[in-house]
Records
---
Amino acid sequence: MSPRAVAAMAASLLLRYPDGPALAALPAIRAALGELPSDLAEPLGRVADHRAGTDATALAAEYVELFDLRRRTCLYLTYYTAGDTRARGQALVAFAAVHRAAGFLVDGGELPDHLPTVLELAARADEAGWALLREHRVGLDLLAAALAAVGSVYRYAVEAVRSMLPPPGPAQRVAAATLARSGPPREEVGLQPFTVGGRR
């Protein structure tokens, strides 16, 4: 695996719900981070250290409160630009098509735009996943800003991902600023067969 792929896989695991398998992967993650450049290893290592040094029950509660109960820090990339509208349903279909074309099936009850899932795709299928991340840079920027605003350690994992992408262009910066002020669009229909997401 390239350093970029290793960093994407580490970020994917560190942004997943902290269940048994995710926590059991921490020693392997920390070993892998030792092979990465410091600008990737340091921020990802902060998240790994937080998970290693925090009680599992507290980690789970923190994760649910942060990512499942707050819209501004949700991990579903299309939510930021499409909100609860028919456009989001179409965007999710497009994400699912990219996964299928790369030979990956989204399992575990997650939606295809779930950030850890897209990061795993980037780690394993390279360009397919990175293209999705580039296309949804606005969502990543808004997520990073929201995580920083609440002082969450998880912001470091998102910052590491953003550092591996091209800088946002003028249109992306304007879109991020606009959405930060107004929030995602709302319509509340058209998401079948997808649900908004959340802990199952």
---
Amino acid sequence: MRAPFPEQLRAVSDLRRVHLVGIGGAALSGIARLLLAHGTEVSGSDAADSETLDALRSLGARCEVGHAAAHLGDADVLVVSTAVREDNPEVVEARRRGIPVWSRAAAMVSLMAGRRVLAVAGTHGKTTTTSMLVVALLHAGAQPSYAIGSELAATGSNAGLGGGPDFVVEADESDGAFLRYEPSGTVVTNVDADHLDAYGTVEAYRAAFTAYLDRIRAGGFLVVCADDPGADELARQALDRGIETIRVGTGEGMDLQAVDLRSEQGMSTCTVVGGGQVLGPLRLQVPGRHYLIDALAALAVGLRIGLPADALLAGLAGFTGSRRRMEAKGNACGVSVVDSYAHHPVEIAGDVEAARSLAAGSRLVVCFQPHLVSRTKTFGPAMGTALGAADLVVVSDIYLAREDREEGVTGALVADAVPLPAEAVVYAPTLDDALNVLIERVRPGDVVVTLGAGDVTVLGPRLLSVLRAREQADG
């Protein structure tokens, strides 16, 4: 659901207790952590129990499994995720009692009040770039507050309250949340096309990023990954408006340029050039050219706010990733398993390319779970094309999330478009089916990557469990 933005937003200090519906989700769990750090009482509910709920309980939140009007209690404010429906009993009860219902954007704006906001927006790469920026700033001695769409390996959390003036936030466009933020500095990683269920057309989606430029505070700055045509066009618009714009990428004429890019043995490296001088080597412990560009954007922000290049580069060299972004899950029977969140054709292509460097000549097996009916209907064939760079592809059915099924729209739309021989592509509707295919067909030396924004993430550990049991049985 889309809760209207309140005309008057209460300060966090004025909130005694906040209730969050969907508290286990990536965005709302971070908001809950920040509220708890502020000393606010927190309660919430989610459809299923999870490690995230357990973690929040350990911090003092009251987390319920399932939804009921009684869970609302005496909350001052109810916060909802976009996946929550209007007929949710807790939402209905809040409306009946006149308790304000806030979107996650409203909650984040309240939490960021009084801080210098450094935001990361874009169609792809937001979570990784935000994570890199936080790690780089922490290493350089800054103490930022932050909210990210995934758990950061360096801190074990997706949000934290720091003692410094900065608030680093992942600025999501999927529900227009980023149009409520007022950043002093912002990154736009790229402007592609996504979330057409909300925006309707590609033109409307891109127009939202143009509108985002108006949200940058006077005297603020914009960093764009200008290798992307959409982001480069946004840079031109920003310059026309007199916004300080920093272009990063691999091309000539960039304000910060990556040269000599390499990705091998699970590492990525390049040399950073800025202002006609070599600033130093950029090394990452994650494979993939696109991750180097994300890191370049994070570096540009750190430099712009006055932090030293050597400390920022050292911080990025220590970046060990964020959850579900090319995350190594383990090895068994000579099979390596990696999990990643890619769910758009561009993201899939980038992660499959990165996985190739991990495979280093071995066979690459990808198990992909499409996310959202609307996205699969629009991009299904392109998803299949991107998956064609693997050696064996297993495609499950769609993770529905907040949508309902639609006749004729299934994961088969993706599988049918994979440009590989028929024997190298399997449509396995359920995750159990997909697991069985993997158990039967993986062999020593394979790199298996599970891809998707849904619950496909459980598949890697399940596969490893079977393979480890096989190892033990074989002695």
